[in-house]
Amino acid sequence: MAQILPRLEGLLAGYRRVILYGFSMGAYAALKYSGRLRAGVTLAFSPQFSIEPGRVGHFDHRRTRLFHRPELHDGMQIVPGDLAGRPCCSSTPCSARMPATRR
């Protein structure tokens, strides 16, 4: 993301309105980078709230074993300062039972 964000910022600078959307990991990224990309609206379907194993590893082991790189993923939870515009989230009933999504 460190390499692509400046390119996306340059590309989107020519647009008056930016809308981001995604599902699952893509929804996470849309929310996480909505502020940096000046999104007016972000549509997030079943987003993850973090990809950091220290925050989700106790209930979500799907990607930790295969993809975790501490130098890239630690501190990657979505925080209020990441958000811009109007974030709109939709989640499945299953995700509502996960402890981390009740916050």
List the helices and strands and how they pair.
Layout: H1 4-12, E1 19-23, H2 25-32, E2 41-45, H3 53-56, H4 64-67, H5 70-73, E3 86-90, H6 93-96
Parallel strand pairs: 1-2, 2-3
Task: Produce a short descriptive summary.
Helix content is 32%, strand content 15%.
Strand content of the residues, in percent? 5-15%
State mean pLDDT (0 to 100 scale).
82
Rg from C-alpha positions? 14 Å
Distance between the termini: 26 Å
Shape descriptor reads: globular
List the helices and strands in order: HEHEHHHEH
**Sheet/helix structural class:** alpha/beta
Helix content: 25-40%
Low-confidence stretches: none
Counting DSSP E segments of at least 2 residues, the number of strands comes to 3
Question: What is the oligomer described by this structure?
Answer: single chain
**Taking strands numbered 1, 2, ... along the chain, how are they ordered across the largest sheet?**
1-2-3
Number of helices: 6
Mind describing the biggest β-sheet?
Answer: 3 strands, parallel
Key features of this structure:
103 residues; alpha/beta; 3-stranded parallel β-sheet; 6 helices; 15% strand; globular
What does this structure look like?
With 103 residues, the protein is of the alpha/beta class. It is built from six helices and three strands; from the N terminus they run αβαβαααβα. A three-stranded parallel sheet has the order 1-2-3, with helices on one face. Strand 1, helix 2 and strand 2 form a beta-alpha-beta unit. The chain starts with a helix and ends in a 7-residue tail after the last helix.
